[in-house]
Design goal:
There is one protein chain. The two termini are 22 Å apart. The protein folds into two domains: 123 residues, P-loop containing nucleotide triphosphate hydrolases (Rossmann fold); 68 residues, no CATH class. The longest helix is centred in the middle third of the chain and has 23 residues. Helix 2 crosses helix 5. The chain is built from nine helices and seven strands, in the order βαβααββααββαααβα. A hairpin with a 2-residue loop joins strand 3 and strand 4.
Length: 196
């Protein structure tokens, strides 16, 4: 039986690391950000429709994220157009992934899981979390990251406390070993299979 496990967490909480652990333990992982990156890249399915809607957003046959961001800042209504183009493409990719891996546990890594209503169709919601000081240290260690940018990203994300309250499972990503063990335990709980 297919079991859809949604994985989310605020910036710096260890979501990508946790997704990699699931993958390393043999669980198929669908990554929403990676799909959008592919759709926006040269030859990606979003390039032609976005070129028609926002000609200045295309550079060298690919979507320029900075140009697209500038368009969205200048015209808030453009976001709806963007979503109307991109969301069905992302959903089609996700549906194809689920079909291809049907019959077992599938992890869907969705940064804006609650914000997009994905919690309504997923079987289990996993939120990764860490204390604010650890989150801040991780994010500010990233190249080019500033406190101002970090604050802006946080302001756009649902607060960690609210995500934790709405989750079925919370994994604290304090250490790699602890996180790996929690992932192992969760796979066992959801599949009845133990992973070494």
């Amino acid at each position: 039986m297919t079991h859809l496990l949604g994985l989310t967490g605020s910036i710096g909480m260890g979501k990508s690391t946790t997704a990699t652990m699931f993958h390393e333990m043999g669980v198929p992982v669908w990554d929403a950000d990676a799909v959008v990156h592919r759709l926006y890249g040269a030859g990606g399915a979003a390039v032609a429709p976005l070129a028609a809607a926002f000609p200045t957003a295309i550079t060298d046959g690919a979507v320029s994220r900075p140009a697209l961001t500038a368009i969205l800042r200048a015209d808030p209504a453009a976001l709806k157009t963007l979503e109307d183009i991109v969301h069905p493409l992302v959903k089609a990719d996700r549906d194809a992934f689920i079909t291809a891996h049907a019959g077992g546990l599938i992890v869907l890594d969705i940064p804006l899981l609650f914000e997009t209503g994905a919690d309504e169709w997923l079987d289990t919601i996993l939120v990764v979390s860490a204390p604010p000081d650890l989150q801040s240290a991780r994010v500010l260690a990233r190249p080019g990251m500033t406190q101002e940018t970090f604050d802006l990203i946080l302001s756009r994300q649902m607060p960690d406390a609210e995500k934790r309250a709405r989750a079925d499972v919370v994994i604290e990503t304090l250490t790699l070993d602890g996180t790996r063990q929690a992932v192992r335990d969760l796979i066992s709980d959801l599949t009845g299979k133990h992973h070494a």
